[in-house]
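User: My advisor asked me to double-check a structure prediction for Type II secretion system protein GspH before group meeting. I don't want to rely on an old file, so could you generate it fresh from this sequence?
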Amino acid sequence: MKNGFTLMELLVYVAVLAIIVSTVATLFFWTISSANKTQATQETVDSVKFALEVMSYEIRAADAVYDPTTVFNSNPGQLSLETSLFLPSGENISYVDFYLCDGRLCLKRESQAPIAITSNKVTVSSLTFKKIITGGAVSVGIEIGADYINPGGRPELQAIISASSTVALRKY
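Assistant: Sure, here is a fresh prediction for Type II secretion system protein GspH from the sequence you gave:
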């Protein structure tokens, strides 16, 4: 009886081990790539969702759309609202503006600095507002598009989101 391995057995063992290791490595890298894609998409979706929620809240609470500084049906658009919320001292009415600043959606209240309300990992690629009047009620249509910032151009980090919403002013 001989003890040990033949050369043929050793080659078969090495081949089987190589197949198993390459399969596990491929699965590992695929899992990481999928996680990165999911994270990029989720970051973009969350940013757009939050922006729509903030704009919806402000539109619902607004007294009116301030037409002189609002840019409708244009990309990038700007929305200006007259509001009685968060008034500066001594004022009866205040203004809230939504517009693009350096690729991010910004909210600016009267006498305050603008605040970016989208993530710094996301670029807002399109922003359009539409004024809709139905039976005397004023609504604002919002269309927003955003891209995940991907300086390396990696395909697994590409995420492009478009969303739209229509919000009615409650005070009309």
